[in-house]
Amino acid sequence: MKNKFRDNGLSLILLVLTGLTLAGNLYTGWHDFNDQLTDYGRSPISFGAYLTSGHCIESVFENWESEFLQMGLYVLFTVFLYQKGSSESKDPDQPEEVDREPSPNRPGAPWPVRRGGFILKLYSHSLSLAFFLLFLLSFILHAYGGMKEYNTEQLLKGKSELVTFWQFMGTNEFWFQSMQNWQSEFLSVFSIVVLSIYLRQKGSPESKPVDAPNDETGGS
Prior knowledge:
By secondary structure, the chain is an all-alpha fold. The protein is 65% helix and 0% strand. The protein is elongated. The two termini are 30 Å apart. The mean pLDDT is 94.
């Protein structure tokens, strides 16, 4: 049991933190939405009903959307873009292990590598594809939740001008929500790429060795 936690501690801790913060987001969002309903003279709704509300769906997926977009683009950009001196970049002057052609004869090679052909081609880009698919799903759910929340607000205000899914995607509100999250994610990636040139964290694979020169590129 101790070895299993040691071997999977990073993912387990991040999963627990995700669960706790998501639960906090849902709980506080539920109370915030009920406060809004009370302000309009409406009765509060149950937690179960809140989970299918536009307020809930929009608040969760507008944030997930930006995270998956950030990671997908970062994985893709690091294939062919470089930053001299950054631990987050490949070395532009040296061949990298990740660029070599996959060998089906390598011990422990995954099944897609042994299978070859189209399956191998797809597997070779599966990480960025997975992030972009998750981004697309979150993007759609953000728009869907935003549409429901917008229409709910209209009804609470006694207005009858409701919007469709596609109409909401054309609003400034939808793109404002997206852009304010996207820009923060790109800023955070920019920060680690640049700060890792000059700053160190002993023991972290996201940092260069403490005694490495600033112009050394890569984490090893």
